[in-house]
User: Fold this.
Amino acid sequence: MIAAVVPASAPLADYTEQAQVTDWPARLVFVLILLALIGLALWGMRRGWRNRAARQADVPAPADAAPAGAVLGTPVAGQFAGTGVNGDWMNRIVVHDLGVRSRAALSYGSTGILLEREGARSVFIPADTVVGVRTDRGVAGTVTSKDGMIVVSWRLGDRVLDTGFRADSASDHADVLDGLMATFTSDAR
Assistant:
């Protein structure tokens, strides 16, 4: 509310109080409608995630640890971007925590690729299921700069999936990509 400056010589009867700027009942109704719309959107997103999980119930759970005796290299810290259906980068796999973005450490060896994740199940991709390794702009609805995502294509059950990883530093990103390409290309196996 803006206060009017009244000169000392002016009579107070000549000045009236200004009307309130805010109409509180209308503002309260607007806020309640806005909160209801936000709640409806969140409910719809949750329902969509659960329906997608029901449609993907046939996807088997991947291994969450490397087999005993597997020799893996030094883990490289980065971001697990998620897993999507091969050829459809917007179609995220949500079952078994495969669609959950998280911090991760990637290590690999001749037996496969291990993604040790924070806050979600770890994922081990056996070497014989790896179809290919490439760089891309994104996977599972996550977009980065050109060639900013390392994408590993692999078989899980009867599906071919793409899993994305982005290393924290550019030098680690290049080293991991070179190592994965050398280890898991069809000529190297």
About this structure: Helices lie at 24-55, 170-184. The beta strands are 76-85, 88-92, 102-109, 112-117, 123-126, 130-136, 138-139, 142-143, 149-156, 159-167. The mean pLDDT is 81.
